[in-house]
Each structure stands twice: as structure tokens, then as C-alpha cells.
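Methods: holo model generation. Sequences were used as deposited, without trimming of termini or removal of tags, and paired with ligand SMILES retrieved from the corresponding compound records. Each pair was processed once, and we did not select among multiple samples. The sequence and potassium ion SMILES for this entry were:
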Amino acid sequence: MRLLVDAGNTRVKWRLERSGSTVNSGADRLEEIETVPQLAEHGDAVGSIAVSTVISEENRARLVESLSRVTAAPVRFYWAESERSGLRNAYADYCLMGADRWHAMYAAWRMVRNGVAVIDAGSAVTIDYVSSNGTHLGGFILPGLNMMLRSLKSDAARIGFDPGDVRLVAPGTSTGECVNHGLAWLSSAMNDRVADDAKKHALAEVLVTGGDAGRLLDLGLVARHVPDLVLDGVGLIDAEESSA
Ligand SMILES: Nc1ncnc2c1ncn2[C@@H]1O[C@H](COP(=O)(O)OP(=O)(O)O)[C@@H](O)[C@H]1O
Ligand SMILES: CC(C)(COP(=O)(O)O)[C@@H](O)C(=O)NCCC(=O)O
Ligand SMILES: [K+]
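and the model returned the structure below.
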């Protein structure tokens, strides 16, 4: 059995696979990984672990420690690359790109084999554009929903509000509505910008992944929802590297 892991800044997404089929999957906080029953149950059967991560080195060591309590299987980390199967990274210093972006982009490229926009709506929101010939045209990094809510709460003395429905875009008539609707309005503007850019760069498809993907779709994003694009990408690369 193979364990795929996407350790982001909020949650660790994982998937257990046997002969390419999913046996189990989940999304848990880093501190919880070593006690996830479904992982413990299959620990002995896991033969290898492939990880994509953007967490700090300190937390990466914690992750390795937690995984070692679940299984004795070796852990292999995969990072951003300059090129793979016709997909070419736009970063001059590709090592500085978040591994999750590269792995999501790679899965998208292999899935679409055409111009594609990839939105990963996680702790941060990343948007990357790949042209029809596999050239990464570049991307954007924006604060994610919870990050924006936290900064409004902590950096402005008189913005008091409770989390509300961040799917309504009507002008607000209370602090809470102004904040929640404001962020919905911002997300909806982002959706429109991606659609404009997709047209401008002749991208055939928009793919969206990440914990906040559903909210963007509810706000009208025109995209295909691929729930675990990062896991898909690191899984493909791990298979290629293991058979090389
Ligand atoms: N059960 C959940 N726990 C935490 N965040 C969630 C959950 N469901 C949806 N979200 C949203 O997903 C975002 C985190 O997405 P995720 O893809 O897990 O991020 P990351 O890859 O950065 O860890 C949060 O900012 C939040 O908006
Ligand atoms: C932008 C990110 C924080 C997104 O990670 P996430 O919020 O999904 O956990 C991550 O891809 C990252 O740390 N990137 C490094 C900088 C870069 O990609 O240029
Ligand atoms: K992510």
C-alpha cells in the first residue's frame, strides 16, 4: 500500500492507495496525524510514503515523527522542479515555489494536456496558469479566507464580528455583514479575473482544489472541482520516480 500526503499550513491531507485505488483518505491537523484510526489500522501494510509539503522545517520534522509512529515505511519528499513531462516552471529559482503548487499544476497538466488555470484555495490561495504547450505563465499568491478574517480581527481595533456566510455579495449593513460580504465580494471578483485571464491566455480549462474550493464554486467560479489535485500530482511523480 502507498500513502500520499499533502501537508499544508492548515491541514494534512492523506490518501491510502492499494494498486492505484483509494482505500481511505482524510484531512487532519498535523497534531492529530499519529492518532488517526484509519492510518493506524493500515500502518503495517504501508510500503512507501510520498509527501508534498509547504510547512516549516520544524513542523516537517514533527510530521516525520508522527508518520514513524503510524508506519515503518520510508518517507520520500517531493519538491518543485524546473520541468517534468513537458510542463516547464516559470520560476527562475524553482526551488522557491511551494511544492503543492507544482504538484497541483503537474496533475492538472497531465489531466488536461492543454492550457489550464489551477486554483488552490487553501490557507493561502494560489492561482497558476499553464499554456497549451506546457509553459507555466506564472501565478498569484493571495491570502486565504481564514487568513483575511484573522487579519481584520487582529489588526483593526474596532472591527468586531462573528464568522458568517461568506457567500453573499450584497452591500453589508453591519460590521459582520460588511466583513463577510466584503470577502465574498473579493472572492467573486477574483473568480471573474480568472475567467478573464483564461480567455486572454486561451486556457482551455480552470481546475479548482483546496478546502475553500466549494465556496468559490458557490460564488460562481466556472471551474472543474478536483478535490485532491496536490495528492494526485505527487502520486503521479512518485510513480514515475519509483519506476525510473
Ligand atoms: N474542516 C475544515 N477545517 C479547516 N479548514 C477548512 C475546513 N473545511 C474547509 N476549510 C477551508 O479550507 C481552508 C484550508 O484548506 P486546505 O486545502 O486544507 O489548506 P492547506 O492546504 O493550506 O492546509 C481553510 O482556510 C478554510 O477556509
Ligand atoms: C503559497 C503557499 C503558502 C500555499 O500553501 P497553503 O496555503 O495551501 O498551505 C505555498 O505554496 C508556499 O509556501 N509557497 C512558497 C512560495 C511560492 O510558491 O512562491
Ligand atoms: K495546499
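The longest strand covers residues 21-28.
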